[in-house]
């Protein structure tokens, strides 16, 4: 089974309550995240307010906290046999923890810094993100090229054969979005305040590299599929590099899922606040029948239920 850890966009008020202080081990996750981030994660996740939770400097730490607390609770119950790991965007740090690559404190140091860097860049730029449904990456890339937009717009998340997320300046998006609408593709503006995984995040590269350089990395104890390689990576230097490049480059999630299926995993288990990544797998019609897809709440039930 492969464990999948989600990133931003899975936050909601009340998330993680079922795995908050459930045991000394889960309590330690919340304590560690709060101490390093400098704000009360328990209060933020349970009470909000939502506009604050939506801000990337808070959201990234909050989602990571719930991911890791859920993993700890799963392990306390006796997790299923795990054959591989992957995390979507900032969810990759949860996968690094699960693989033994980074310790808990280093994970929260990295994620807190990543959120602050991205929040600062969002406030300095005028960017946005849109989910485009019913289309693959190649079609989006062709439309971007046809409008000669260069790197003003990026495919931020190649999520599935039928879902892309584009990211870039609002001016460039204003030019491209009507063409997507005319082509019949549904578009949804994402509730984010920046253009993640785009060239607008490139100025944060050096600052985040300094953060990554200050962390203690170990070799993965399980196959770790990274967003940039879309394959299992064991080399520590490549993992370091991929984490930095991921800040301003496409999340190759579609290829990652295809690689996991090709590797022979017997199923998928999403470990996080909501059932998001599992639902994306339904777009992979070429991989049908898919291995079983579950959520961590399925394993923790009937004692807890994380999300619908």
TrEMBL record:
It comes from the Bacteria. Its EC number is 2.3.1.39. GO terms for biological process: fatty acid biosynthetic process. Keywords: Acyltransferase, Transferase. It holds the Pfam family Acyl_transf_1. One of its GO terms (molecular function) is [acyl-carrier-protein] S-malonyltransferase activity. One of its GO terms (cellular component) is cytosol. The active site is at 89, 197. Residues 4-305 form the Malonyl-CoA:ACP transacylase (MAT) domain. SMART domains: PKS_AT (SM00827). The keyword Transferase applies. It catalyses: holo-[ACP] + malonyl-CoA = malonyl-[ACP] + CoA. InterPro entries: Ac_transferase_dom_sf, Acyl_transferase_dom, Acyl_Trfase/lysoPLipase, Mal-CoA-ACP_Trans/PKS_FabD, Malonyl_CoA-ACP_transAc, Malonyl_transacylase_ACP-bd. Belongs to the fabD family. PANTHER family: BLL0263 PROTEIN, MALONYL-COA-ACYL CARRIER PROTEIN TRANSACYLASE, MITOCHONDRIAL. This is Malonyl CoA-acyl carrier protein transacylase. It comes from Aquipseudomonas alcaligenes (Pseudomonas alcaligenes).
């Amino acid at each position: 089974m492969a464990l999948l850890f989600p990133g931003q966009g899975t936050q909601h008020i009340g998330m993680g309550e079922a795995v908050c202080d459930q045991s000394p081990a889960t309590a330690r996750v919340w304590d560690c995240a709060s101490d390093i981030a400098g704000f009360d994660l328990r209060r933020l996740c349970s009470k909000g307010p939502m506009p604050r939770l939506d801000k990337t400097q808070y959201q990234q730490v909050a989602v990571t906290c719930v991911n890791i607390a859920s993993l700890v609770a799963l392990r306390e119950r006796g997790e299923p046999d795990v054959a591989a790991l992957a995390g979507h965007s900032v969810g990759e740090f949860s996968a690094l923890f699960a693989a033994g690559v980074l310790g808990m404190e280093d994970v929260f140091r990295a994620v807190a810094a990543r959120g602050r860097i991205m929040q600062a860049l969002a406030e300095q730029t005028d960017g946005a993100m849109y989910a485009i449904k019913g289309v693959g990456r190649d079609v989006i890339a062709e439309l971007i090229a046809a409008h000669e937009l260069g790197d003003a717009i990026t495919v931020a998340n190649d999520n599935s054969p039928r879902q892309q997320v584009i990211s870039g300046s609002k001016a460039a998006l204003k030019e491209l979005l009507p063409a997507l609408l005319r082509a019949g593709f549904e578009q949804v503006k994402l509730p984010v305040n920046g253009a993640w995984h785009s060239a607008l995040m490139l100025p944060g590269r050096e600052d985040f590299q300094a953060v990554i350089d200050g962390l203690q990395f170990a070799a993965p104890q399980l196959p770790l599929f990274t967003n940039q390689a879309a394959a299992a990576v064991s080399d520590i230097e490549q993992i370091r590099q991929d984490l930095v490049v991921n800040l301003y480059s496409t999340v190759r999630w579609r290829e990652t899922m295809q690689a996991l299926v090709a590797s022979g995993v017997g199923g998928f288990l999403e470990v996080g606040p909501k059932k998001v990544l599992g639902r994306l797998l339904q777009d992979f019609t070429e991989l049908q029948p898919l291995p079983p897809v579950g959520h961590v709440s399925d394993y923790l039930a009937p004692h807890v239920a994380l999300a619908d």
